[in-house]
Amino acid sequence: MTLDFDVTGDGPAVLLLHSTVCDRRMWDPQVAALAAAGHRVVRLDLVGHGGTPVPTGRFDEAATVAELLDGLGINELALVGASGGGRLALEFAARQPDRVTALALLCTALRGHPGSPELEAFDEREEALLEAGDVAGAVDLNVDLWLGPEADDATRELVRTMQRHAFDVQLAAEDVAYEPVRTDPDLSRIAAPTLLVTGAHDLPDFREIALHLAGVLPRARHVELEWAGHLPSLERPEAVNELLRDFLA
Asked: What are the domain boundaries of the chain?
């Protein structure tokens, strides 16, 4: 199976990995800015999001990302990952550290990190709504939790659209025998310069993860955005564009 993707611009490659609340459309504000700064920008839809369906059988998403990059002739690249996309970026960087020149993680998740009571309560509420068939309610729950106070109505509607599509794709594939291959990243293998961005209005889990990563990754820097929720690249796009341009330069 091929991950749905697009490519914009020329120059050093940057791969954008979206949050699992969204799909690759969440990077619309960043693509033009990074391409104008001289980058070849690749973005893709993760499994069950956007244009990428849920596969059948065992499926290794990190290995499939590597195959996609091979097909594009990209040997080295910077990775930008948001939330669940950051978790995949860490797995990829740990498996292929020589390939990753830089790592920018926005409110990243981390496999194995125990969830806070707030996150566990959210998961339980979302599951209850979906089991009751209230997909619209589950979508609203996500929009309300993951966007900070800077998000305007258009941003909230975009996230609502992306999350609803993801639920529709994933619920339609409930009977598909999908077995994801996941590995805990060996963080000691990651040597690339790393930017860790968190939002003051986000759940505490993601700041805890960033502080943990800042303590174990040798070239990591943590930036907390006092105005941000969980999706700062959508909430204040130009502020995040400036952060990414400066870091990638």
From this structure: 5-248
Out of 3.20.20.30, 1.10.472.80, 3.40.50.1820, 3.30.160.270, select the CATH number for domain 5-248.
Answer: 3.40.50.1820
The stretch 244-249 carries a mean pLDDT of 97
The amino acid that residue 94 corresponds to is A
Residue 95: name the closest of 61, 55, 45 by CA: 61
Q: What is the pTM of this model?
A: 0.97
Phi first, then psi: what are they for 27, rounded to 5°? -95, 5
CB of 76 closer than 8 Å to CB of 221: no
**Residue listed under structure tokens 């839809």:** 45
Q: Tell me, what DSSP letter sits at residue 203? A: -
Which residue is associated with the tokens 């914009």?
A: 8
Is residue 1 predicted with pLDDT exceeding 80?
no
